[in-house]
Write a structure and sequence with these properties.
6 copies of one chain form a homohexamer.
Chain A lengths: L1 H11 L1 H7 L3 E6 L7 H16 L3 E6 L2 H10 L6 E2 L2 E2 L3 H25 L4 E5 L6 E5 L2 E5 L2 E5 L4 E7 L2 H8 L3 E5 L1 E3 L5 E4 L1 H11 L4 E6 L17 E3 H9 L7 H13 L4 E6 L5 H7 L6 E4 L2
Parallel strand pairs in A: 1-2, 1-13, 2-10, 5-10, 9-12, 13-15, 14-16
Antiparallel strand pairs in A: 3-4, 6-9, 7-8, 11-12, 15-16
Protein name (chains A, B, C, D, E, F): Acetylglutamate kinase
Family (chains A, B, C, D, E, F): Belongs to the acetylglutamate kinase family. ArgB subfamily.
Pathway (chains A, B, C, D, E, F): Amino-acid biosynthesis; L-arginine biosynthesis; N(2)-acetyl-L-ornithine from L-glutamate: step 2/4
């Protein structure tokens, strides 16, 4: 009997496997979702399974908390303006060392441990991410002031060729969000936005934001207020009405950016929920919030 | 919580999916296992799922009961010698019409209904199965007598080219066990033996016999006596000791034939058990009997 | 001298071989043209030769007389409305068994015997023919009445992928005209119409109707009245003037359907004429009637 | 009736077309066989037909008579030793101009005129024929004397890559027998021998020598003494017994060279016989002499 | 130190190598530029180097002086009208023998000697150049008179398929400017014009005219008056003002023809300047005159 | 004149470009050779040029000095035994961050800046380097003692698939020498030895050690004592005689390892010499020491 249930559950996944066969899913794997070994294992197994059943995950990861820790170790105080890290030369060096030299490799190792073949990359390789310095404006005394965030960039162009090759050869690409400008300078990118840009360029079907919240909720302390499905206009309405505020707003903007770039749906799931990615994709009800254009 | 269990079950399949990735499994789908709609649906879903997760099923089907019914309708009495159907011209016509014209198409339809792409074939297409008339001997009064079974054949050569093309292009081939001799005459083949021959020629990893028994049991009425794993020598021992008798013996010979042809393991499962194929492949304990060389 | 003539005849075919190189010809092989062994050999040899000289035949076959015989054997009376077979469940079963289980295999065998590589298929495999139930209307007392023909369908969509693969790999596809509707039900198709639909979908250059008449004649008893070449408007004119009547009209409609679907020319030839297909294609004068758009 | 005969003749070619499908035939087209326009047309049509029915002709041509004429026009006297043209620098220039600049192009033109796609080459292109200076010995007063033939070479290595590409892309290569030594000097090659070397390197099934004789005859004036099939040992026997003498001996040696290099059969046919190549290949009895190893 | 200079020079070529990577350059190699062994070596080495660094040269050669010499040897007087050779049948034969049988092969040999893989072709092979008889008009007594130049043609269509294959397989094609009309007659083509036509058809980036002058100069005796870069309108201006006259005008027209056909720039360089092709391409200043559309 | 010299120098490289076309060169780029911006530019330009002229560089880099600096900044003292870095967990983290997160990216950036397409990798991606913990022995009081170096490994297996794909798609792979053991733990590898192992696995023609010495010299202060070419036995002789001592010995062992693994020649060049790689490859005399088997 228990056996039968197992089989039924496998079979339940079949329509989803058929539907998403050969599609690309961009997984934005946030630093806050990498809280413990177990959570990291859940994600890794989910992504390897996706790959084996014919869906192509492409990972863009963050690493904010770890970067902060490394900075503090070196006696530097992290500073953010509008959710973007102020990045001087020394900070950029730390960002790259932590993202590319540590977190990226850890994700690759986990994926390979569970049977996947992964390739760690930054936006520097194969001219993957061409970026330009981001000009940030701030309103002060009802005047627009230009703020210098340092070596912070925004995506100008994504050259998908290298990723296409790797995906086609059955690798899972794992990308650190560092871009290069036309002078060859590295730039620190916001991982959420970059993920949306890459998803759009790759014609990804879905962008799945693996975060540390369950999704968009009316009341963050009440799981029953979680929205399963929202349209952009509903979200804009919620922002206007003050239901969505603070740190969530830049993430929401990244979601809308992805939809604008051609992604069909964006999903916010909680990396601390066991196998959240798999459940969001392979079950009717899902576990997080799905955002669609309309 | 229930969600979590679902995901865990999917993930449990991962090592098996990795291990069998890109391999070929020959599914011998027996006529006695096609007892009802539900059982046929279970098998079809299992095979489509296998295909989508990167394992390549190739189906060889039987159809004995249905052939008998058709013959009786036409006023002919089915006759068997040593488990092989005596096949005159008229019988051969009925065999072909039922196998190729009915059962094969029904299997193809089921597979396509659940999202697979299937192609129905007989051994006549693409010179798939070159056969020769089978010479059957009988011991009578301690004398070896040659028996004429009529248009009954045994496989001489399997040309895998057509199947290779179809498998590579992501189709599930469904094969009726009719062969052709060098004069172009059709011959009725024993589906169990033919399945083993095709499995060997295709370098299939497994031959899965979907039957109407749970496997090899010491006492057919006591499920607890089911053997999970047997070697050829253990089986030979069981035959010698009289544990395996009667109608099971030709099937066992077909299993040994497959192992001789290079198949790594043969599995006997019960098509009436829900999702028997999936459970046999994707769970540690399995549901039937696995036979290996040693 | 005789030798020389032989060579000259081979060479005469050269311009046609050049002209039609790599093109696809849809051969509608009618049940009435399969009258005897010799006639079946002629056709088979013609098609194998076409394949070897670089022209790609695709066969769609009928089988009306054989189906009628099988039905009568089972005590059923064939019934037709407007040339379409009224098809209840039992009839459909017989149609499939005869077409797929018998005639299709016989054609495949013949082709393979003369050196071709053939693959027998029905519209069920590889989602080849998606069909829908045909709604037939009848005029009665100047009122349009809807007639239920049972499991009779018309082609909704032809998925050419499987055929393309087989043709490219140098197989001759032989197709039984059975389609599948969106619920997975099989439907009996008119072979003439289906052949035109497949020809159009495959971008076939020619549709060759192998029948039991020499072509379109003003007087069916006077061979000298055979038309070698007709345009659609000439044919419409002949119908209006009553030169073409009765059973020929549905066939003519099938020809016009094929031209509408993009076929360059439709040819009606007599399968009882030795090597009619070859002669129609490879000689200036031809042996049957060619119909072109204008 | 006449129509029927035509078709039968086409069909008679079928077994040969099947048998030789995709094989390569090396056609040595001798200068003496290019006697008139009509004969040149026969050969060209034969080769184009071969190509279209799936057999791949590769042409190596001679041009002795035309070279002699050109030399005489320039006031030079052709000189031969053991059938090899003594070749000083000026002669080599004439040889190249006539072979590459005239005869090769004429053959290409004829082939293209009848629907073929041909490419004219010499052994200079694509390092096709690496040659070395031929050391010729002469017995004089029972002493072996080395003779300097000038710029005459023998094949050292055939690089088949260029020809393989052209054949695969459906071109007919037409090759002038000029080789290049390791210092980059051009060398005049004996076309018969070179044809055998190229045939061997290309794994050609047949070498067909298109000459101005009907084959090997016991009495050159009695057509009835023509041998249809000979083995090497039979030929050696004939030479010993004096049946084969004079100018025929070097040609025979070229035939044996080809068989040694792996060609299955060598055919000697008369280019003045209409469609000799076609008849030799596509009829049971042939028109010339076939030589096989044993 | 000297070593360092060597390396610097190699490195200086890098931006040009990057820029022109995988592009096609049409090299028109004029007969007047083949003056001596050394000059021929320079060109050959330049082209082989280009090929190895990833730029694809395609050579169209002339051979006027050599043709004249051959004609005179045969007692014929070369005759030109408006720079086009009057070409009777005998002249055409000489043209083909010299161009295809001699000069083409010499270029191929040189290229192969320096490590290239070259293939000699005329416009006759692979239907490369389809031409038509050129109608030439002359003004006489202010009347337009049609002049018969004999077998002189102009390009009607270039079939790039053969060249594409050869370039892709890493060969350097060397083309003699002989075309074929629709009746299969060979026609003598002006090499300058043909080179432009082929360059356009092949989507060549550059047409490089290797001549015996340094480029376009205001005063042909004063090297310092050489124009490095000119636009079409500047050139037209120069012609109008009488700076460009005589034999240079047809060459200029050929340049403009190439630009019209889509070539990005045409270069006139002096084949007697050591490595003129390399220097023109790989140095900032160049050595000849570059002509661009505007 | 100067122009001519430039061209001559380009042409001088031609034989080397031909000879090494399509081969793979493993470049071991040592940390001591990355002393200044200019030296890093020289190397980057050299490698990009190699790639463009058809030679495939694969880079394995070191980074010792930079790792030391980073460790010291964090208050850790680098410790070496027999030239291998003692590597505790914290050290390994620093090693990875510096190698993968900083140096690797810097090399990639330089290569891309000069027109190359580079991909940064560690041995973790695509299961590139499977390693095992290195057991190091020390002789102490004439007793062999096992020393624990911590997370230090040696290459067990190189999976070339990912590199093969990247090389074939025209990328320059840049590899940080970090391996993974069977438990998924990262291990710090000696870059010299790893470079030889990868070179052998990739069938590289050459291993070029870019160091901070000019090569092997009898007297390190006397440039004139530099050996241009040495065999293994000559080197062993020099070691025995005490000409090669100290820090050079492990490097020499790495060279011999590479030759053992099948590399044809190992070159030691000085990264501070302008364009040392290019000069070593493209000039007769070279600039460093070449070591060959015999």
């Amino acid at each position: 009997m228990e056996q039968y249930t197992k089989a039924e559950i496998l079979i339940e996944a079949l329509p989803y496997i058929c539907k998403f066969h050969d599609q690309k899913f961009l997984i934005k794997y946030g630093g806050h979702a990498m809280v413990n070994e177990q959570a990291r294992n859940w994600i890794a197994k989910d992504l390897v399974l996706l790959k084996y059943v014919g869906i192509n995950p492409i990972v863009v990861h963050g690493g904010g908390p770890e970067i902060n820790r490394a900075m503090e170790k070196m006696g530097k105080t992290p500073e953010f303006i509008h959710g973007l890290r102020v990045t001087d030369e020394e900070t950029l060096e730390i960002v790259k060392m932590v993202l590319i030299g540590k977190i990226n490799g850890d994700i690759v190792s986990k994926l390979e441990r569970y049977g996947g073949k992964a390739v760690g990359l930054s936006g520097k390789s194969g001219q993957l991410i061409k970026a330009k310095k981001k000009i940030q404006y701030l309103m002060k005394d009802s005047q627009k002031i230009e703020i210098d965030l340092g070596m912070v960039g925004e995506v100008e162009h994504v050259d998908t060729k290298l990723i296409d090759i790797l995906v086609e050869k059955r690798y899972i690409p794992v990308i650190s969000p560092i871009g290069v400008d036309h002078q060859g300078n590295d730039l620190n990118l916001n991982a959420d936005i970059a993920a949306g840009d890459i998803a759009g360029a790759m014609n990804a079907e879905k962008l799945i934001m693996v975060t540390d919240v369950d999704g968009i909720m009316d009341d963050i302390n009440d799981q029953s207020t979680l929205h399963r499905r929202l349209t952009i206009s509903q979200i804009e309405d919620m922002i206007e009405k003050g239901f969505i505020t603070g740190g969530m707003i830049p993430k929401i903007e990244a979601c809308i950016n992805a939809l604008d770039k051609g992604v069909q749906s964006v999903h916010i799931v909680n990396g601390k929920t066991p196998h959240a990615v798999l459940l969001e994709i392979f079950t009717e009800e899902g576990v997080g919030t799905m955002i669609v254009k309309e």
